[in-house]
Design goal:
The chain is an alpha+beta fold. Among the domains are: 56 residues, no CATH class; 183 residues, Alpha-Beta Plaits (2-Layer Sandwich). The chain has 21 helices and seven strands. A four-stranded antiparallel beta sheet has the order 4-5-7-6. Strands 1-3-2 form a three-stranded antiparallel beta sheet. The N terminus is likely disordered.
């Protein structure tokens, strides 16, 4: 059968009404973002748009519509992949604290961190502080190795290998369970690595937020991310491309120059969209004002004992806003802070809320505490290691407090059963003393520097705000028997708190009872 010519009206009409779907590969991220943004301003297809685009046109377009007109959603169309290696766990926790973040970090369950090394702050010539810091970190790493080996032997002694299970799988599984226990000794200074895939808008927010951090390492990390986005990216195909180019030079020298431009072209993943990322004055000024207000209102108030999970009751929105704004710059529980806020005059509460807004610039998003009014709010006090797992739930609003040893530390039951209680407790107490000594120095960043020595065993307080669906999801997912016992306890406590308040809703939770025995060989 003869094929109809392209100009046939019937075929043209059919082509125009037929949905087309195709994947796109090879375009620079900003060029691709420009091409997709043109859908709202041109009748061209993406193929046609990309064919006429180049980096210079994309930059001109973005300078106009992104920076001058504030059309920031354009940057959501450019997705960028980064590797961030050899940063501290403390810095990694801050880096990933983005609601729209996707990535993976080294796992303390499946990797041995004994050779990772650790970050050392600049003590500005204070040799005594530097020596105390390094000595304490070295001891923690030596004990991490000792506890990793000791807990593996303990678990192997009480967990027989099934006949059908291979020896390497058996040992690998128990080693992971042992790391779940020994990770409590790792300090926040421990080096880790992670990969992230984020939109250019998230990257811009991330860089600006990092540049606004009180931690020198984190500010430097913001500079490195900004630099990596604007410089040439690592080309995974370069070895193959170089080999092909060498072959072209031999067979067709006249084409070599043109081939090199295509095969080894340097790609800058986001040369335009992050070039103006700077420290956020809104965040810096608000931090200064609210931390001062928190110190004034709460500085002399003792910290009351608090449960693992506290499901908070509803309150007037202005009370929640003022309480949450102070919460992030304090170490008291939400209930304690709320009690103080409720005792303030309406004028004083309004002043606190005003401190969270008065420095907001034209393009600044409101700070995270203003994400208020959600029905389920959990004030959670758990070990830092477990918190890092809970931190991955970015569909909820998380208001974090700074790291401190003031909440004490957790000790896994298996460590007690293995007869290592005294050794563990002495190590934690000794580290606590070192942290306090470093924090007490008369240096601008003394408190931030001391936090790097805090082991993952110490507790951290975080406010999690969410809807019912997310409370259901976290409780079900994190209570599973394959999970870490720390966040399993938190997830189950969340379920129990909801079930007590809403008994008729308990039937919809598919949770695993954490009191039931766990098969250590199942993951």
């Amino acid at each position: 059968m003869a094929t109809k010519p392209v100009s046939d009206p019937a075929q043209t009409s059919a082509a125009q009404s037929s949905t087309q779907v195709y994947a796109v590969h090879g375009a620079d991220p900003e060029v691709l973002a420009y091409g997709m943004a043109k859908y709202s301003r041109s009748a061209l297809s993406l193929r046609e748009s990309l064919a006429e685009l180049n980096e210079q046109k994309a930059e001109k377009f973005l300078n106009t519509f992104y920076f001058q007109y504030g059309h920031r959603s354009i940057a959501d169309l450019a997705h960028l992949a980064f590797a961030i290696e050899r940063l501290s766990i403390l810095a990694a926790t801050i880096l990933v604290d983005e609601p729209r973040w996707d990535g993976q970090e080294r796992s303390t369950r499946y990797q041995d961190f004994k050779k990772s090394g650790y970050y050392v702050p600049d003590f500005a010539g204070d040799a005594e502080a530097d020596a105390l810091y390094r000595q304490t970190a070295d001891i923690l790493f030596a004990e991490y190795q000792h506890f990793s080996d000791a807990m593996f032997e303990y678990l192997r002694g009480r967990t027989p290998k099934p006949e059908e299970m291979k020896q390497d799988a058996y040992e690998r599984t128990l080693r992971a369970r042992a790391f779940d226990l020994s990770r409590y000794l790792l300090p926040m200074a421990t080096n880790t690595s992670l990969g992230q895939i984020v939109s250019a808008r998230t990257l811009e927010n991330q860089v600006s937020r990092l540049l606004s951090s009180p931690y020198a390492e984190v500010r430097r990390l913001g500079e490195l991310l900004k630099q990596a986005a604007r410089e040439g990216a690592y080309n995974v195909n370069q070895p193959v491309a170089q080999s092909l180019l060498d072959e072209i030079r031999q067979q067709a020298p006249q084409l070599a120059a043109r081939a090199e431009q295509v095969l080894l072209r340097e790609v800058h993943v986001s040369p335009t969209l992050v070039k103006y990322a700077e420290p956020i004055r809104y965040e810096l000024d608000t931090r200064r004002e609210l931390s001062g207000a928190a110190a004034e209102l709460l500085g002399r108030l003792p910290i009351d004992p608090a449960p693992l999970v506290d499901l908070l009751e509803d309150e007037p929105l202005e009370v929640e806003l003022a309480t949450t704004l102070l919460y992030q710059y304090d170490h008291h529980s939400y209930r304690q802070i709320r009690h103080v806020v409720e005792g303030l005059s309406e004028k004083r509460r309004s002043e606190i809320i005003g401190l969270g807004m008065q420095y907001r610039g034209r393009f600044d998003e409101v700070s995270r505490p203003f994400n208020s009014g959600l029905g389920f709010r959990f004030d959670i006090l758990m070990d830092i290691g477990g918190f890092r797992d809970m931190h991955r739930h970015r569909r909820c609003v998380q208001i974090m407090q700074d790291y401190t040893p003031r909440h004490g530390y957790d000790m896994p039951q298996e460590i007690e059963r293995a007869g290592l209680t005294s050794r563990y407790a002495q190590l934690m107490d000794r580290t606590w003393e070192a942290v306090a000594q470093l924090a007490g120095r008369e240096a601008p960043e003394a408190d931030e520097q001391s936090q790097y020595l805090i082991p993952l065993a110490f507790r951290k307080r975080t406010l999690f705000k969410m809807d019912f669906a997310e409370a259901l999801y976290i409780s079900e997912l994190r209570s599973g028997p394959a999970g870490h016992f720390s966040y399993r306890n938190v997830a189950y406590a969340m379920y129990e708190a909801v079930a007590r308040r809403y008994p008729h809703l308990a039937q919809y939770f598919r949770v695993t009872d954490v009191n039931e025995p766990v098969d250590l060989l199942k993951r």
